[in-house]
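Thread: Newbie trying to understand structure tokens

Hi all, I'm a second-year student working on a class project, and my supervisor (Dr. K.) asked me to get a predicted structure for one chain before our next meeting. I've only ever worked with sequences, so writing a 3D structure as a token string is new to me. If someone could post the tokens and maybe explain what I'm looking at, I'd be very grateful. Here's the chain:
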Amino acid sequence: MGRLYRAIPVSLLVFIVYIVFTGAITPYDIITGVLVSIVIGIITANIVISNPYKPFDPRRWAHTIVYTLYYFFVAEVKAHIDVIKRILSPKMPINPGIVKIPIRVNSDYAITAVANSITNTPGTVVVEIDENGKYFYVHWIDVKRIDEEGAYRSISYIFEKYASKVFD
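---
Reply by user tm_fold:
Sure, no problem. This is what the structure looks like when written as tokens:
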């Protein structure tokens, strides 16, 4: 029963991704999506999900929605506006550098989510993850703080806040 219980959220996620990427909801796409997602869910369930009860926690889903909304409608918009201002400015005000940021989330999924959020936000790129020392090395287009705590607060704090509630 454990493997099947773990397969449900994996299958749902695979099905949603399949439908989004095919861009169609014809009977053929739905049937194909269901069959493929069930097979993938059953095969990968024990690899992808360690605790079968986490995906069914409604609080995690609420935090996922908040994380997604924050990322797409606040962090992304602010970062794009900042980069656009730099591009359009005749003096191109940049102060690039690589900063060391502590990682304060625990699971591999949370670390990956935070690293992706940082990298996909214009102006910052995670160039290295030191898993032993628990640090991100981030290239920042405009270094405002070089101390670890200041850089953490400026770049990854809010992402880690939500990622820890979703994944840890």
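A couple of things are worth pointing out once you decode it. Helices lie at 2-22, 27-48, 58-88, 108-120, 148-155, 157-167. The mean pLDDT is 90. Feel free to ask follow-ups in this thread.
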